[in-house]
Amino acid sequence: MKHLLALFSLSILLAATLVSCNEEPTLQSYFVDKQEDSRFVKFDLPSSLITEDSDLLNAEQKEVMQSVRKLNIMAYPIKEGDSLKAEYQIEKQNVIDILAREQYQTLISFGSPTQGASLKFVGETDAIDELVIFASDEERGFAIFRLTGNDMDPEKFVNMMRSIETGDLDVSQMNGLGQLFDTSEEDYDDSWEDQEGWVDDEQNQTQLDSIIDEIED
Amino acid sequence: MKRVIILVMAFVVTATGFAQDVFDKYETNGKVTSFVATAKMFKLIRDIDFETDDPEAQAYKDLIDNIDNIRVFVTEDEATRNDMNTTVTNYLKSNSKLEELMRVSSDGKRVRFYSQDGESEGFVKELLMHVTGDIDGKQMSVIMSLTGDLNLSQISQLTKDLKLPGSEELKNIDNKN
After folding, report:
1. Banded pLDDT at A158 (limits 50, 70, 90)
2. Is B23 helix (H, G, I), strand (E, B) or coil?
């Protein structure tokens, strides 16, 4: 009996060690890994850029913005006549594997034989630590949009968006941000978003589109 | 000894908790068009608690309040179609609570609905739709799975808005039920 217990606890210990040794990559480590990789296009926006102009926000809004740490966008564009599509497939699979891990909980996902998009998050629904959009297209490439922060509460963000709509908050005055939102997206073919079930509710998506446009240009 | 058994049990329970759903494989299958919205998504929408005067939006809100999961898989690929058919058959066999709700055959297309009864009349816990055959001139297989505390008449509205095959058939579901 004692032996059995000892054996049992030993095997648990062993299993735990194995798990902790074998640290799997996260999106964070992937971003760091690819920082110097010229095949990727990167864009980072620290939230300090947004919150700097403190007169514009009231205390509550400031608190909301401070829960956001930064915004990272990374894209792998497929160039015309790209002979290295195999490389693209490998990188895409790497991202898919990372996002398949348990911590990345799916909110919405859409997939077709040639395109895919998913919205995932880390944390709780009212305290999000990381929000991830991953979109791919076999002709254009893939892009990862990543918003990191600390206990971000979507409800508070929506309240803030409402105050933007009602004009209480003038976004255009915020450094850099206005430019980001204004980027034209004329060239972008968004017909695939109109397919059944695709929810285009994210202003984020617009940002992603403009980034993709920039890449193409 | 008891303690060991409890420990082992705990392990087994946790392990099976991670077991994949039978339909999950179609999400990563390169031949399938899929759409998935999870319980977390619906919780998030509920938390945000938007207010609206639009009756149509209000109807959606009521519907969303009671949905846990929605998944749709569509394929034209022949091998995947067959695989889907087998998966559905096995799923129905393994889950005796799912009963056939309705079956319609028309224009070379077969639409079947299965449901698991919910707490109250006119509500279901799970609704599974399986369409096979000729859809818009193409051989297709469609699986739609909805879970939650679902009001059948509201669902027919949703499937119509999503323009899913089978929505026409589902429209009459209240009358036949």
Report:
1. confident
2. coil
Structure tokens at A14: 């062993």
User: What one-letter code names the amino acid at A106?
Assistant: T
For A69, A138, A172, the CA distances from A56, given in Å and listed in that order, are 19, 42, 11
User: Does pLDDT of A177 surpass 60?
Assistant: no
A4 and chain B in contact, CB less than 8 A: yes
Q: Which residues pair with A70 in a beta bridge?
A: A46, A148
DSSP designation for A190: -
Distance separating alpha carbons of residues A31 and A179, to the nearest angstrom? 25
* pTM greater than 0.80: no
Domain spanning B23-176: CATH 3.40.630: no
Please tell me if residue A155 touches chain B, with a CB cutoff of 8 Å.
yes
CB atoms inside a 10 Å sphere around CB B12? 10
Partners of residue A12 on adjacent β-strands = none
The pLDDT, as a whole number, for residue A214 is: 57
Triad A141, A142, A147: Cα angle to 5°: 155
Could you tell me which residues come within 8 angstroms of residue B20 by beta carbon, excluding any fewer than 6 positions away? Answer: none
Structure tokens belonging to residue B169? 């058939």
Instruction: With CB atoms and an 8 Å threshold, state whether A111 touches B34.
Output: yes
Could you tell me if A125 lies within 8 Å of chain B, comparing CB atoms?
Answer: yes
Spans of all domains in chain A: 27-216
Q: Which of A164, A165, A150 is nearest to A56 (CA)?
A: A164
Residues of B engaging A, defined by a Cβ cutoff of 8 Å: 1, 4, 7, 18, 27-28, 30-38, 40-41, 43-44, 47-50, 72, 162-164
Rounded to the nearest angstrom, the minimum Cα separation between B143 and chain A is 14
Strand duo A141-152 + A127-137: pairing: antiparallel
Confidence (pLDDT) at B168 = 67
From the number of C-beta atoms within 10 Å of its C-beta (0-12, 13-18, 19+), residue B153 rates as middle
Q: How many residues does chain A have?
A: 217
* Cα separation, B94 vs B106, whole angstroms: 28
What are residue B91's phi and psi, to 5 degrees?
-60, -40
Cβ of B173: how many Cβ atoms within 10 Å? 19
Reported as a single tens digit per residue, the pLDDT across A20-43 is 445 678 898 999 888 888 889 999
